[in-house]
Amino acid sequence: MSASVAVYRSLYTEDRFKQAYGSEDGATGSRRLRDKLAGRCRCSKRACLHLLRDRVPIVQWLPRYRLRKWILGDTVAGLTVGILHIPQGMAFALLTSVAPIFGLYTSFFPVILYVFFGTGRHVSTGTFAVVSLMTGSVVEQLVPSPLEMNSSSSEAADFEAQRIGVASAVALLSGIIMLCMCGLQLGFLSTYLSEPIVKAFTSAAAFHVTISQLQSMLGLRLPRHTGNFSLFKTLASVMENLPHTNMAELLISLVCLAVLVPVKEINMRYRQRLRTPIPVEILTVIVATCVAYASSLDSSYNIEIVGHIPAGFPRPQMPAVKTFPDIAGDTVAITFVGYAVSVSLAMIYADKHGYSIHPNQELLAHGISNTVSSFFTCFPSSATLATTNILESAGGYTQVLSGLFTSLVVLIVLLLIGPLFYFLPKAVLACINVTSLRQMFLQFRDLPELWRISRMDFMVWVVTWLSVVVLNVDLGLAIGVVFSMMTVICRTQRAGCSVLGRASNTEIYRPLENHSKCYEVPGVKILTYNGPIYYGNRSFFREEMSRLLGLTPEKIRSWEKARKALEKRERDATISTVERGIANTSFSSENEFFKSETSESDVQAVLIDCSSVIFVDVAGARLFTQMCTECQKVGVHVYLANCNESVLKILTSSGLMNYMNPQHIFVTVHDAVMYIQQQREKPPENTTTVWV
């Protein structure tokens, strides 16, 4: 049984509705803002505690920690992620073009700092392949690697110091940028990197990582290419030097891939059954190190090994701040990528587990992590895909204790076990790098669904992916962002303009092209525009409105000519009447003339539904005035309905009310239609006569 609704009320214009239900005091908004600012600036114990809880979330979480329920999951998850951090930290250090020990430092210091300041309970921070690759490109540009250099000489130590100085400078500048963005409340900027952009970018960057690791997997000593078309340059260089492949390193790479790929697939397919994933990376590192040491592979087959890994903490040192002018542009791109990936991951797991993320606080957390850790020879860090997924699937509840256990594992390696990895082949780390990109490669599976849901987002994905692969990581990302914003602009420029019809015996109005059983209200053309009206689309809006209303220049000129003829005839008739002293009723008033003319086209009023017009700029407001004037010239009255407060304020401030009756602005479309019909049903007034 269908329910029916009957509502009886007065017709509401915007003025009448504000008088009945609006705020009495127009200064309420400004006073509320003033009170809010005064409250923020007030210093009290309560305000200090509130600020402390906001800026150091661990103060709020730790007292609520459920020790018995969460401690086991956080312990297992933290230890599992810590074990994974060791090989990945060393492997991603190779992408950054620095020594593996600096990857371990980056897996320790940022994790500790994020525990105190981060809001993502399931986020694991540390080294990330894409950020490491982008940082490595900067390092290679400023400190290119020589083809031949004695690894035991002081020259090699100076070379490594220069490289980590540049990488630390990138981390420091990135942290400063994030802190400045936090101070300016710019956390919303991450929204400009939409989901198709992030997925296409990371998927394309995975190809760059894979190609860059081919030379280590094949045992080739080649310079690293940077700049545009670097992927093809690297691939061409590898293909050209294939005859010089070190067969021992190739064999090591094949064996590692044969172990890593199947076990990772098992971890992924049976993650619900496995209490913790199989730590295949650290097992591979341990076995490969033992085999290389026992067989003296470095001396017998000239394979490249990690070399000396110092034990203990690094001494604090100043990054190479003199390189700031050279690295500024690349660092901005690295900052946005790291922050966007971190916030995206945090939001995904926050939605899954029912808590909220604060983007500005995430800026503060990652800003402090990068700034402080840069003084301990760390390169830029961010949230990581693989370890975050493992942290959540292993049963972690918060990053408070899981992060501490992760840092504990890395700390043990730094203090005690690190030097034991001296004989670890770099080919093993390259294989770990490649196999860690599995999730990024699998993002291709989203394309069919994206094509089905939104062709425009599909195009954004493809353009971003091709730009990153063909050109370069940072330039490709910029092209993807610009293209994505252009699609938004194009969609607002070509928003649809429709004629609305009324459903019988209802107050519901829908576009006629999609609802054939709705009908147009006689004498009223109801139009709706599904987008903002601004300088970029004002011409299109004008063309659509003119087309639907039939306001051609010829019609406007003919009406103008008829108006002038009418005025002249009335003027002559008035003079004649005064001279003869009799009433002349042969001519009707101007309104009667226009009523007779408009009966031909049957459009006497145009009603614009502004419910989908989210904003209007100065150019759009002036266009409204111009359209109102042109409609009045042809005897058509203009009405507005469903205007939001900001649109109505701009239209009023621009002087539209000088050309339009303020009582022609209604709360709903149905109010306006009822008013127009009532005006048409009124009996015509008698002709005024003049007696002398």
Blueprint of the fold:
Blueprint: H1 14-21, H2 28-41, H3 45-55, H4 58-61, H5 67-95, H6 100-106, H7 109-117, E1 125-126, H8 129-142, H9 154-183, H10 195-218, H11 230-240, H12 247-269, H13 280-295, H14 297-300, H15 324-353, H16 359-374, E2 382-383, H17 385-393, H18 399-417, H19 426-435, H20 438-441, H21 447-453, H22 455-470, H23 473-493, E3 497-502, E4 509-511, E5 523-529, H24 538-549, H25 553-580, H26 590-601, E6 603-609, H27 618-633, E7 637-641, H28 645-653, E8 665-666, H29 669-681
Parallel strand pairs: 5-6, 6-7, 7-8
Antiparallel strand pairs: 1-2, 3-4, 3-5
Helix pairs in contact: 5-6, 5-8, 5-17, 5-18, 5-19, 7-16, 7-18, 8-9, 8-15, 9-15, 9-16, 10-11, 10-19, 10-22, 10-23, 12-13, 12-19, 21-22, 22-23
Biggest sheet, in brief? 6 strands, mixed
Which stretches of 5+ consecutive residues score pLDDT under 50?
Answer: 582-601, 685-692
Task: Record the strand order, biggest sheet.
Answer: 4-3-5-6-7-8
Distance from first to last alpha carbon: 70 Å
Helix amount: 55-70%
* Number of separate strands: 8
The fraction of residues in strands falls at under 5%
Number of helices: 29
Transmembrane segments: 70-86, 92-116, 164-188, 242-262, 332-351, 403-424, 458-483
Keywords: Membrane, Transmembrane, Transmembrane helix
Domain STAS: 514-676
Protein name: Solute carrier family 26 member 10
Fold and architecture overview:
- The chain has 692 residues and is mainly α.
- The chain has 29 helices and eight strands.
- The longest helix has 30 residues, at 154-183.
- The protein is elongated and about 115 Å long.
- The two termini are 70 Å apart.
- Residues 582-601 and 685-692 have low confidence and may be disordered.
- Its main location: membrane.
- One of its GO terms (biological process) is transmembrane transport.
